[in-house]
Design a protein that fits this description.
It is globular and about 60 Å long. It has a 6-stranded parallel β-sheet. Strands 1-2-4 form a 3-stranded mixed β-sheet. Helices cover 38% and strands 17% of the residues. The longest helix has 25 residues. It has a single domain, classed as TIM Barrel (Alpha-Beta Barrel). By secondary structure, it is α/β, with parallel strands linked by helices. The structure holds zinc ion. Zinc ion binds next to loops.
Amino acid sequence: MTKLLPTSTAGSLPKPSWLCEPEKLWSDWKLEGDALAEAKQDALRITLAEQQFAGIDIVSDGEQTRQHFVTTFIESLRGVDFTKRETVTIRKRYEASVPTVVGAVARTRPVFVDDAKFLRAQTKSPVKWALPGPMTMIDTLYDAHYKSREKLAWEFAKILNEEARELEAAGVDIIQFDEPAFNVFFEDVNDWGVAALERAAEGLKCETAVHICYGYGIKANTDWKKTLGNEWRQYEQTFPTIQKSSIGMVSLECHNSHVPLDLIGLIRGKKVMVGAIDVASNTVETPEEVAATLRKALQFVDADKLYPCTNCGMAPLSREVARGKLNALSAGAEIIRKELSAQRPAA
Ligand SMILES: [Zn+2]
């Protein structure tokens, strides 16, 4: 990208209320069959138009065709039984009834490739596509087959790589793996989590990214955040390993969080998607608040590597609030672009 500070979102955006119940995760579709397929495409068109209207530079599908960022991908795989459920503790934080891995996992068909082709055909803007990361996938399942987190993660990494290669061929510019689990299982991240991620991204020529956050603004997450103290230093545990990895971009939470921004210095050399929008609050940021976060981040990342972004997905927010936040992100980035161009000597 030639434009400085290209903006994007971390992933999900709210869905229209005619598609499913709004402001809710795992919301059921309101339509079926062909009507649902058509409605999903319409939702893709709308989410794209809203991003473009707000001036977002790198667009996404807003995850309009997925019920959930992890589950929807797993649903299409062989080896996972969704009728056989066990209760597990997700990210050491909240209990959930999850499907069971009952046999060897495999990808039997492309999952999001048709959606990516559809989005690609609608726009010339750079497109970012999010996939769940291997460690976050295994954390959302009960494993009765491999009985090894590492082995299952490795199998998922191979499957993700098949999907990622086809998304790249469909014209996706950035493939992002969502790994909120990286903020919880530090030892595993350093032992095999980053290696599994690199396996998922193997051979890709497009940009690759990892998104590591403190989660959606749901109660289980906001309760957990209250236990983390004044300084959130989770990134410190994993950034040195990520810095040495082949993953090119890191998407992280910065705005309204207690993350000391100097931790960004630990991933020097990477492109950094700086979360400058709080997804756990209905208050729409002012452009100046966004700019203040970006200005702080600029102390630790070069301007040509800074990508203003949201802290996490905005699926649980109202559409109106999400639109306001997209506008604020664009306007805040523009403030900093102007500052940077004023600092630069005229050519
Ligand atoms: Zn996130």
